[in-house]
Amino acid sequence: MSENLFDVTNVTLRFGGVVSLNDVTLHQKRGEILAIIGPNGAGKTSLFNSLTGVYAPQEGEIVFTNAAGKSTSIIGKKPYRVSAVGVARTFQASRMFSAMTTFENVKIGAESHRGLGAVGAMLKGPATRRDEHRSDALTRELLDFVGLTSQSNVIAASLSYGSRRRLEIARALATKPEVLLLDEPAAGTNPAEKIELTDLIRRVRDEMGVSILLIEHDMKLVMALAERLYVLNFGSVIAQGTPDEIRANPAVIEAYLGSSDVSEESK
Amino acid sequence: MKNFFSSPLVKRVGAMVALWATVTVMTGPPGNPAQPALGFTSSFSERVSFFGLFPTPRGVLFAALGLILAGIVVLYRRILHTPVQRAKASIVPTYQSISAKRSVRGSWYAAALVVAIMLPHVVTDPFWQSAMVSQIAIYTLLAIGLNVVVGFAGLLDLGFVAFYAIGAYVTAWVTGALPIGAPFHHVIDPFWAIPIAIVFVMIAGVLLGVPTLRLRGDYLAIVTLGFGEIIFLFANNLYGITGGSTGTNQIPFLSFHMGPIKYLWGLDPAPYYYLTLGFVVLFLIIFSSLEHSRVGRAWVAIREDEVAAESLGIYPLKYKVMAFAIGAASAGFAGVITASQTLFVSPPTFSLTFSINILVLVIFGGMGSIVGVVVGGVVIQGFVVYMIQSPPAWYNPADLYMYLGALLVVMMIFRPAGLIPSRRRLREVLQVESGVARDQLTTHMGPHNRVEEDLA
Questions:
Q1: How far apart are CA A139 and CA A132, in angstroms?
Q2: Inter-chain residue contact A220 with B314, CB threshold 8 Å
Q3: Which of A15, A68, B53, B243 could make an S-S bridge to B248, C-beta 3.0–4.6 Å?
Q4: Which residue among B294, B300, B301 places its CB closest to the CB of A121?
Q5: Strands (E), B172-266
């Protein structure tokens, strides 16, 4: 059985003439907190969208292997199918269902993988009711886990930015994933919220056994959380390693600060 | 003590008394400035016959009905709401607590149902009796169905009339009124047109939905508009099958024979009214439990953010097609009733204007709000019928849509979410107006490139 959760091999994604991901190869081990960093436009979100079925890369392979050892090729699968195999995500710009309550937001995640259910929903049979109770219980548990129980009945749009981030994490966890993809979870949060968020993400991995794949610009958060990092620039992986290795890598510093020539010129 | 009026029991009794007084006055003789209280007082002095059984003053009759109803509600709550369940409900103060208000609303619904049942005995004018079926009940039913598509799933359907037309033509086909002849060798009761038509429109809903519901917003509206026109042209031009532009007038009244049970619907509109009312109630119950189910929540999720919904494992196309087919079912039934009550079908009935008319009822009443749509349908269509029956001197029938248009404009300015908005829709409207949109939230995210200092 493969130890890897994600095996991304030679993935290339193009939009017309623009190459968004160029021959990207990376892997994530089960149970790992992995981070992907890189300057704006490096292709991080494109990679996320490829991993979750929003984009279908033209070349390469993305294989997801679940805990039971079953491998699934992600490319060509629609996002709802990718969710069903155990991949959950949050979005860069917060995308909660803003006119619904916190509770309802999470409950939608909790019940999305049950069957069709229109007939059951009309008849309200005992099976449907049992399903509802199970979803309610899972929702309460997750709201408690992320610390939003007191705001269960609050309309999602009125939550603070940090709470919205936690709500999105709870909603994604409600689909019972094996890996959680977080797209800039700390964007827009204040320093206190950042500390809470770091703690929450670590608890998701430690207590729920969900692997974490993280895109983040806040280096303090990334360095504190990630066990391994990949650095993307112009759609290619330019470095990988532990936080310490990355910090010392000249290619990474160059990608972020620009090559010395360019910075000379800009002066 | 300070809040005795907010106790559910007081509210319920108050609602019952108010309803009783309203009904007695409403059913009394027309207004007379010299005796303003006549409507109420006469309800105790005049005796009316109730289903031809026992002559009683109206006031007493309605009060007795109300008491019986209240008794049923109290008994129901005593039996089903045991102390254990009440305790459970208080421990779980989350989402479910919203349903606590349902019992109060339940008595309002029951009261409205009693009024609806009494109506044919109160309104004896034959024009109104007939209009109550063909103009009010049918239109309201169609609005309830369209509300599933437009209100719940957020799909703008401008060709809803197509399903209504299919329902009507299937009725004509099943009863052997069309040139192509009936599908069955021996004659079946026209009553069976109801399930057959519902199945047909649901299939039509799926067939139309699967290819088109991948489109979003305006594109979907245009395609459904086209679908409505295609059905209209089929009906109009396929002489050999549909009877062409004159349609057919050979449709029999509904009838039902099964063993010893026989019933024949005829010229009297009241039985049609009760049949339609029964189905309206059935569809209301089904649609409202759908709204508060997993399916309903999935619709809201898709409506609010399709990308996020799909990332949670919801397959948007599946739920959209479901909304289309379920909404169409009520239109199919409405088509059967129209065809078999008026005894004819012809293409001009199924024009684009009709689709727009139904959409107006939904928007006026409140998209996504079942109660709102019912009230919207009854109010607007009631107004339309009133203007046809007893037009004021200044009114020109050709101007009807002008007044409805003006009404809609006023509504959009003062109550953009409709007469009785669904709470969720209202929130969505308010959020858009106050700019709590996603794009705006992203601007709070601040600069990304603080990486340099962090790396250093």
A1: 10
A2: no
A3: B243
A4: B294
A5: 255-258, 261-264
Give Cα B450 to chain centroid, integer Å. Answer: 55
List of residues 6+ apart from B155 with CB closer than 8 A: B149, B213, B220, B320, B323, B324
Cβ contacts (< 8 Å) between A187 and chain B: which residues? Answer: 445-446, 448
Smallest Cβ distance to A219: which of B313, B425, B451?
Answer: B451
Task: Give the C-alpha separation, B381 to B361, whole Å.
Answer: 8
Selected from 1.10.3470, 1.10.1140, 1.20.120, 1.20.58, the CATH number assigned to the domain covering B122-437 reads 1.10.3470
A100 vs B contacts (CB less than 8 Å): 297, 300-301, 304, 424
- Residue ranges covered by each domain of chain B: 2-88, 122-437
Gap from B250 CA to chain A (nearest CA, Å): 36
Region at B173 (left for phi over 0; alpha for psi -120 to 50; beta for the rest): alpha
CB–CB contact A101 B95 (8 Å): yes
Task: Give the start-end residues of each E strand in B188-285.
Answer: 255-258, 261-264
Does the beta-carbon distance from A80 to B315 stay under 8 Å? yes
Cβ atoms B283, B275 nearer than 8 A: no
DSSP state of A150: G
Residue B368 in contact with residue B355, Cβ under 8 Å? no
Contact at CB, A121 and B295, closer than 8 angstroms: yes
Which bin fits B189, alpha (ψ -120 to 50), beta or left (φ > 0)?
Answer: beta
User: What is the signed CA dihedral for A148, A154, A160, A166, rounded to 10 degrees?
Assistant: 30
The answer to whether A99 contacts B304, with C-beta atoms less than 8 Å apart, is yes
Residue of chain A minimizing CA distance to B286: A122
Distance, CA of B375 to CA of A254 (rounded, Å): 67
Give the neighbor-by-neighbor strand order of the sheet with A59-65. A18-29, A4-15, A59-65, A71-73
Nearest to A113 among B313, B446, B454 (CB): B313
Compare CB distances from A247 to B427, B452, B455 and report the shortest one's residue.
B455
Backbone angles phi and psi of B199, in degrees to 5 = -60, -45
Put simply, whether B305 touches A (Cβ < 8 Å) is yes
